[in-house]
């Protein structure tokens, strides 16, 4: 059973790696203000929720939604409250009320926006351009500050005005249509790519569960990886990986791996960290490698099927050397591992034993949050860089036992280059000699 559980954790880590592969103002602010029938000096909770539902394009559900006692079915904002309740953005209080006419504070507005974006439930990694306030809303504040959505002064208990609420929502959602259109153009540009190189790094941290009563795993285990990938659609894909682990009871030497994904299967060169001896291992594969690589080269952003779980923002433009790029941000929360696997399909190339454990891995995860940025060349629409931070939250128990782990955090930064250049992906002589 222990071996099977370890494989389940490995499957989750591999899935997280697979997906590793407000300067511009929109016209939204005025339209949001026009939605309020009689705006006053203070913005009410119902008014902000109504504007938020409109800004984020949250649909009104067809199903019946139990409404709070203090929301009249004839209220102008009733349908927006229904949409927010169905989406889990707001909840009934213990008295079955939501206090729609109470003024909304900046902290309350920040928390609601965070729920819509699906931001992680832990503080944003630093450094931040400004400190997050020591407040119950510190976590969502940290993310909006890090993303440049909120600037100083930060005033959590300040009651917002209608203009302030509409301006904040415009910064978050005002460029979503432009951003989505740029993503589509980039997707189309990548369908013509036959070869490319990818270089980057990943930092993966696993946090232990303090409620785990058995021999405690380390509080935090961290894996730092440097990756180099070369792809040729007609030949295959090669990958070189160097991993350094920390946080374990004993110091672990770096792990080096070389991998080739070719038509005849997967070939891996593993080096013994103690002796330095290397050995090639080959695994046959029934996967259509050419079709897989074609899909990969055409999916440099998030898969289209995941769009409904994500929001997009056009941050602005960024010039690096002689090139100018669109700077796009994306935010989302995938409700379960099962949702991700069903939408993306089983990851090609995994060993059958790992694939079989995917179903069991799904029972381990509560949700997956992701925050990221993409740089897209302004002329070619090809991706230059993708960086993201993901958090996988584990359930408290797994297979009737307390789960030893609480969260898995993964940050990555990949640079894409040498599109359609001459790249040969072939097994090296020493690998051929061992076959």
From TrEMBL:
The keyword Cell inner membrane does not apply. Residues 1-25 form the signal peptide. This is S-layer homology domain-containing protein. InterPro entries: DUF6612, SLH_dom. Residues 64-127 form the SLH domain. Keywords: Repeat, Signal. It comes from the Bacteria. It comes from Desulforamulus aquiferis. Transmembrane segments: none annotated.
């Amino acid at each position: 059973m222990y071996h099977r559980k370890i494989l389940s954790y490995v499957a989750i880590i591999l899935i997280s790696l697979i997906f590793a592969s407000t300067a511009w103002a929109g016209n939204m602010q005025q339209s949001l203000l026009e939605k309020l029938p009689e705006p006053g000096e203070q913005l009410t909770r119902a008014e902000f929720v109504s504007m938020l539902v409109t800004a984020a394009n949250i649909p009104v559900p067809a199903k019946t939604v139990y409404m709070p006692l203090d929301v009249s079915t004839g209220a102008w904002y009733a349908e927006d409250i229904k949409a927010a309740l169905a989406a889990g953005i707001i909840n009934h209080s213990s008295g079955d009320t939501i206090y729609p006419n109470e003024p909304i504070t900046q902290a309350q507005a920040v928390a609601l926006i965070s729920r819509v974006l699906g931001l992680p439930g832990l503080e944003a990694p630093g450094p931040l351009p400004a400190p997050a306030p020591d407040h119950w809303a510190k976590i969502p504040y940290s993310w909006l500050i890090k993303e440049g959505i909120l600037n100083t002064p930060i005033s959590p208990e300040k009651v917002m005005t209608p203009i302030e609420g509409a301006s904040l929502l415009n910064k978050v959602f005002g460029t979503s249509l432009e951003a989505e259109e740029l993503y589509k153009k980039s997707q189309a540009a990548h369908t013509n790519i036959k070869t490319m190189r990818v270089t980057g790094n990943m930092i993966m941290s696993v946090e232990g569960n303090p409620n785990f009563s058995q021999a405690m795993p380390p509080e935090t285990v961290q894996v730092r990886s440097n990756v180099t990938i070369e792809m040729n659609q007609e030949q295959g894909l090669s990958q070189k990986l160097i991993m350094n682990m920390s946080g374990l009871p004993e110091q672990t030497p770096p792990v080096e791996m070389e991998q080739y994904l070719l038509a005849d299967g997967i070939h891996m060169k593993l080096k013994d960290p103690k002796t330095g001896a290397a050995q090639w291992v080959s695994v046959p594969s029934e996967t259509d490698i050419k079709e897989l690589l074609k899909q990969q080269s055409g999916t440099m952003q998030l898969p289209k099927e995941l769009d409904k779980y994500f929001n997009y923002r056009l941050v602005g433009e960024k010039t690096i050397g002689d090139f100018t790029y669109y700077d796009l941000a994306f935010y989302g929360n995938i409700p379960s591992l099962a949702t991700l696997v069903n939408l993306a399909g089983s990851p090609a190339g995994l060993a059958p034993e790992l694939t079989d454990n995917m179903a069991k891995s799904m029972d381990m995860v509560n949700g997956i949050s992701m925050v990221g940025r993409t740089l897209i060349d302004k002329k070619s629409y090809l991706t230059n860089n993708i960086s993201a931070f993901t958090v996988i939250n584990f359930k408290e128990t797994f297979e009737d036992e307390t789960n030893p782990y609480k969260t898995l955090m993964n940050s990555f930064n990949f640079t894409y280059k040498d599109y359609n250049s001459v790249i040969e992906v072939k097994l090296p002589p020493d690998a051929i000699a061992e076959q």
